[in-house]
Queue: 2 jobs
Job 1
Amino acid sequence: MNRFLLLTILILFSCKLNAQLFRGIDHLNQYEPKISEMDAALKSNPVKFSEIYNDLRAIHRQKKDETLGAALDVYQGSFHYFQNNLDSSGYYFDLAMDRSSKIGQDQIFRTAKIRKIFTDEYKKTKYQMAQEMRAVYVDSYNKKDTINLIYSLNGLGIFYGDMDSVSYALASFYEALRMADLSKNMNEKGFIHNNLGLVKYDLGAKDSAFSDFQQCLRIGEEMDNAMLQAIARQNMGLYYASIDSSDLAKEQYMKVNKMGNEFGYTLYILSSITNLASLEMTMGNPEASDSLSNLALKIAKEGKVLFTVPTVYYGRAYYKMKTAEYEDALRMLDSAYAYTQYAQYSEIMPPYYHLKYRIYEEMGDHEKALETYKEKVELNDSLDAIGNEKLLAELQFRYDDEKKERIRSVEQNKLKLQVKQGEVELAQFQQNLVIIVSVLLGIIFIAIILYFRLKQKSDNLFSHTIANKLEEERARIARDLHDGLGQSMIVLKNKFNNLEIENDQEVDTLNDNFSEVIEEVRSISRSLIPPELKRLGLQKAVQNMMDEIEKSSDYIITTEIESLEGVKFEDFQSIRIYRIIQELCTNTLKHSEASSIKLEAIDLGNTLELIYQDNGKGLDMDKWKAASNSVGFKSIEQRLKFLKGTAKVDKVKTGFKINFKIPINS
């Protein structure tokens, strides 16, 4: 089946069932035969429904029976809802709530409230509607109103399904089924199975949906409820059509048609014929499809089910487009447009422009196709405005209906208006005051943030400058030691060696002392500013330092720092990383009582990860923080801060392990 037609038919004819509305209200038992008959005709036979409704409305006016009046308001609202007149529907539900609240009829009030929520689908979000429905559910639960408890759970299931909250939707439907079972409300159980099946169908769980449709059919047959049977078979036919079982789908539609004719259900006759027309189209029988569409048009017009006429015309227009009868297709669309006044404008017009656009595209008339597409876009922008105009019309209608009552209470309303105006002015003043205070607080807050950010930036710059000056001073001292004191010691050693001293042992001792002093000066110079750092780079400088430690001690040194070779650091970054590693090694040598050191460097792209570990007596994060007051740890933290890096001491069974992460592009 063509997706465009299938969606349209699903919207119109996969209707969610509504059980008899007021079972359990004793006062209405005297009208039971007519109410049951009207209930059965509510969706299936508009003409018959209107006749019974008018008879009961006359009784309501004659007897001034407000319970009956409130019930009839709910039925009239439901009738308009099924005719897609949502504004009129909402008006009658409001009227029902007003009547029922005045006479204390809570069940009718909740029934009207549940249905009123459905009419707000173009004014509120599904979440808001679900919240309102949940409030009715809680009220029904507290008042032990089983029927409305089931209806509200059904509404929650529908709204949650529309919001893709699958688990909540299914839970709501299954709870409704449980309540229907406990209360022996089999009619409600049947329509809940049908609605649950539709949600599952939309979710793609077609086989499970079909099982629910079968349950609905079984209950309808057990109760001899023709309406349940008709809607179940209608949806079973849609299932068969979706899995290309055309013969089985046709069989279900024919049974629906037979039941519709037998019981006078115009809507089901019409829906079965329309779906048969679509089925014939998919089976490659366009002539049969067109003939059935003509029959559907005749039935819709004679049965006053005019809100379905545009959809039937759309089906005929689609057929004409497929057979390249483009002018006829456009005429069919014009006919559909003439009947849009009987349908929900926001639902019926988008398919109109969509199909018209496709026809012009297939005709090759790109100018008109573009023009139609623009009209489609303008339509979407104007739907909200149209909704507001319809709402204003309804407000005017309500005003005329209640005009006498408002005239009698005009003085009281004026007083209320003055009080309200004073409250509004006070609220406006309070709102303005809150806004002014909020703005001032915001400005102060932003100023404080800017101050501390600038201060932090200034402090960082100052510390950075001091650190650079210290490194420069260390470099100068290192050069002075190497070039000055170191060279002087070498000269003194050479002069001493040239002296003729008879005591060879004393000469050797002094000569060794000179060598040790010279080496100590060189060592101090290298520690202050390692010459290989600039000459060889960070990786080789660190490797040389680790090699020196291994040569000059009993420590086992393991390094995996090849990643440092490919990392490009500025000089100030390299020297700080070098100093951090140097300080860690010094702490291990002096305090840890370890026998091995391991150093790893990992290039993570924009981050360098350094992992330092020894097997000494250990240091956890708390001890690290306590030790950070020492000069050595302070220097590590300060250098890490300049590098914008982080440190984390890992817990290990033995020894000490610390992980540094340093941004490469800091």
Job 2
Amino acid sequence: MVDWHSQLVQQQCFEAIIILVWLSVGSVVREQINTAYFDWQIIAGRRERKWAQAVYLLAKVSWWVYIALVVVLVYTFNEVDCNHIM
């Protein structure tokens, strides 16, 4: 059986989570780069604007907020007290 309270096991789990987080961040950044030209055409007015594109651009902005929060939480040096935050 795995001893989930072992420091070694917890460190291995943490490292695995960090790898998954960076894979997630990488896929989001790649998608943002691939669609940047299309987004710029909407913002610059070269494409006809529709109401659904406002939702699309809001989702794109929320992805960048997600990326920023993930990077901050991955690189935090102090333990996050979730009970105090909520």
